[in-house]
Write a structure and sequence with these properties.
By secondary structure, the chain is of the alpha+beta class. It has two domains: about 5-150, 2,3-Dihydroxybiphenyl 1,2-Dioxygenase, domain 1 (Roll), CATH 3.10.180.10; about 160-370, 2,3-Dihydroxybiphenyl 1,2-Dioxygenase, domain 1 (Roll), CATH 3.10.180.10. The protein is about 20% helix and about 35% strand. The strands form three sheets. Strands 8-9-10-7-1-4-3-2-11 form a nine-stranded mixed β-sheet, covered by helices on one side. This is 4-hydroxyphenylpyruvate dioxygenase. InterPro entries: 4OHPhenylPyrv_dOase (IPR005956), 4OHPhenylPyrv_dOase_C (IPR041735), 4OHPhenylPyrv_dOase_N (IPR041736), Glyas_Bleomycin-R_OHBP_Dase (IPR029068), VOC_core (IPR037523).
Amino acid sequence: MAAAARRLCHITFHVPVGQPLAQDLQRLFGFQPVAVREANGWRQLALRSGDAVFLVNEGAGTREPLYSLDRCHAVPSATNLCFEVADAAVAARALELRGCSVLVPPVNVGDEQGAATYTVVSSPVGNLSLTLLERTHYHGPFLPGFRPLSSKTGQGWISHIDHLTLACTRGSSPRLMRWFHDCLGFCHLPLSQGEDPDLGLEVTAGSGPGGLRLTALQTPPSSAVPTLVLAESLPGATRSQDQVEQFLAHHRGPGVQHVGLYTPNIMEATEKVTLAGGQLLTPPEAYYQQPGKESQILAAGHEPSRLAQQGILLDGDKGKFLLQIFTKSLFAEDTFFLELIQRQGATGFGQGNIRALWQSVLKEQAARGQEAWQPVRHPAQGLGERRVT
């Protein structure tokens, strides 16, 4: 590998002035602002919940001030993943030898809280760049040059980032998997027994065309880097039936489709998000009426009616279970959403949930005679509507 990633420091988003991502993260998901930087018409706000950190860059210009990179992407988007490394300069040289473009050569920055070194390199995933950060000698709440903010104390309901899902063009997963392995030390994480890394896990859409190909990647257990999931569409489905193809069209290329936020109590977190006005995807009733679903939920120690009422998905067996729920898009352009996830011993990604939910969606589409499923909307105002095309 060229650069061993030790941990994911933060995820950077670029949004236009007035887009309420920062406010939504605070109001709906309990994130607290920890540092801010304002320069050249841009406002950069770092928000934290547990170990999950998002940097929201809000501005009207084309050149963002932290890394001095041109930002020409036309829609709101997650644009950068910041990984901590042992030596930023060494990592940059190694990645450059592997063909990566070094967008920002190693830069030393500091303030009264200490010093840090960072470099920015390109990635093979659409508009996504990677920051490699060396900050052993920095003791501030975020990065040099940011003004610390006093935030509320107390434990939020999000503890860390569990995984990130990258929506990719069809057939690109093997190439991307090799890149993340060779450059950052990620290895294949099988989602099914005997899974071929080049094929990943195929989640078909029942008897209809299309489906998903999922390939999971992880770093060694000694690191604190979330799992990456590569998602691409299988041949056959129309764009209106295919969530990945819809993302690629709205986002105008590959990118970060969603982030899984880990919570130790998904029912409490879901209730708080809903009461705050968040809009969550509600699966069709058929999902909870599948044979064996009630006994599966009971075996996991939960009440079927409560999970159904809140729209929480559950998958697993043999004492290992996974609970998930998804928000609607945080952007009107339908280019990013969040997932709340709780694990009870499970290490996978709810492939049973994906398959069952997909099949239920197709049944709902057929019953209504519609091209695409429009999820049930919670009555409170909040996240942007999900458009169906």
